[in-house]
Design goal:
The protein is mostly helical. The chain has a single domain, classed as Four Helix Bundle (Hemerythrin (Met), subunit A) (Up-down Bundle). It is 77% helix and 0% strand.
């Protein structure tokens, strides 16, 4: 029996709520698991995986989910409040990422190891630099008059699209980090595959959220 448009819409919304809820749980659970594995404070290196997991798995994911119409933790608040919370979380994410980058760079220097010679290192560096540029670009949304030839709607669209690229870079860095010797010797078997699914799940949820926002803007223009 064919589903009605209303039933399909309700089912789709339920799936989005379930996926968004799972993303919230993963965003918090993944850094918690990394903290248990890394035991921050046990060594200088131990802070690197925790800070990067906090930056790209927890803070950045929550910063983007704030605008989810179904699962935002602040959906009952005004858009102005959500934008400010987004800014605060993104700045915290950037700070954690910069600290994580600084720690691993200094740790390699102490141990006489080469810098940024692996795909994980290069992707991580690019993700951190991109996050810095994305935060700087967000200033244009606070002061749109600086870009006289661009409408606010276009600035929002480009900021969301470029933000998605930056987020995917961060998730790619996390996944490559899980291929490192430290992680693969600590996490094995089914647990490793489960860990790899974490950034993949949140990436899919965020991509769906951004694409739906884009389609909504396109429809509202016609």
């Amino acid at each position: 029996m064919a589903l009605t448009a209303e039933t399909e819409s309700r089912l789709y919304r339920s799936l989005r709520v379930a996926a968004g809820t799972a993303a919230h749980l993963v965003a918090l659970g993944f850094p918690a698991a990394v903290a248990v594995l890394a035991r921050p404070g046990s060594s200088l290196f131990s802070w690197h995986p925790l800070l990067m997991a906090l930056a790209f798995s927890f803070l950045m994911t929550e910063a983007l989910l704030i605008f989810s119409p179904e699962t935002s933790l602040l959906r009952s608040f005004s858009r102005k409040v959500r934008v400010r919370a987004h800014w605060a979380l993104q700045l915290l994410a950037l700070l954690c990422a910069l600290l994580g980058l600084g720690i691993i760079t200094y740790n390699k220097h102490l141990n006489g190891k080469s810098h940024f010679v692996t795909w994980h290192g290069l992707t991580g560096l690019l993700a951190v630099l991109y996050a810095g540029g994305q935060c700087a670009g967000g200033v244009l949304l606070l002061y749109p008059k600086l870009m006289k030839n661009w409408t606010l709607a276009k600035l929002k669209l480009y900021h969301a699209t470029s933000g998605l690229v930056g987020y995917l870079l961060g998730c790619a860095s996390l996944m490559l980090g899980m291929c490192s010797l430290w992680f693969t010797t600590t996490v094995t078997g089914a647990s490793w595959y489960l860990a790899m699914l974490c950034p993949l799940l949140t990436s899919l949820v965020i991509m769906n959220q951004v694409s739906n926002a884009y389609l909504y803007r396109k429809r509202s223009q016609h």
